[in-house]
């Protein structure tokens, strides 16, 4: 008989308990995502068929993933997938895993930039999350997304293809290096590295498995934010917007820098935890 001794409900309970002891953040969600991945089903199926028996192969695969989660590996690396702005994005260890906080940046961009034909540049696109989310909402925006890391460029292109947004122009570039000097954008967005190298978060949780180059910047995390702010002035249209994600403690310093650089209409939007997260100018 091709049945293990595990029903869906039992496997979820067991996985959740095991994960909870080691990585207590979201153990039930983690167990559900891993089981959905192994069974190739959606969340509704888990609730609809709690008595459904796993095959021995499914049970083995699932508990092997649970064990890797217990070792600290991010769920997104185990499933190869992370949802952002309702888009299922392929993820791998060469980029940052898209975070819900970054949806604040997408929301600000959609709110402030009203032209249907806007030209947009995303710097440090990683999985392509921000650029693809914007394209999904504004099909006529002309979007360019760049990343310095070759594997990230490949991953972003793969996501653009598989989600049907192959019109997004994805390039390898060290910030603005591959952008022609005469190009002007109505919107420049970035979620650059902004953690300080001694940030305690780097030693905890999922970030340990993410690339340092996507997380850490010099000058207490401000170096890339400031570099982008300075350079962007030469690439924005008159009245164009710059929108930068940053750490909760970096808002006031960044606003000051932007003001000195000649930006106007400077404001900071809050994330879901009411922390300063995205500064626009
Ligand atoms: N928000 C991320 C974190 O705290 C950092 C992302 C970044 O540096 N761009 O893990």
TrEMBL record:
Limits of the Release factor glutamine methyltransferase N-terminal domain: 10-80
Enumerate the UniProt keywords alphabetically.
Methyltransferase, S-adenosyl-L-methionine, Transferase
SUPFAM superfamilies tied to this protein: S-adenosyl-L-methionine-dependent methyltransferases
**Residues at which S-adenosyl-L-methionine binds:** 124-128, 147, 175, 191
Could you tell me which Pfam families the record lists for this protein?
MTS, PrmC_N
Q: What is its EC number?
A: 2.1.1.297
Catalyses which reaction?
Answer: L-glutaminyl-[peptide chain release factor] + S-adenosyl-L-methionine = N(5)-methyl-L-glutaminyl-[peptide chain release factor] + S-adenosyl-L-homocysteine + H(+)
Q: Which domain of life is it from?
A: Bacteria
Query: What is stated as this protein's family in its record?
Result: Belongs to the protein N5-glutamine methyltransferase family. PrmC subfamily.
- Give the HAMAP family listed for this entry: RF_methyltr_PrmC (MF_02126)
Q: State the protein's purpose.
A: Methylates the class 1 translation termination release factors RF1/PrfA and RF2/PrfB on the glutamine residue of the universally conserved GGQ motif.
**Annotated protein name in UniProt:** Release factor glutamine methyltransferase
Q: What is the protein's species of origin?
A: Aliidiomarina sanyensis
Q: Which gene encodes it?
A: prmC
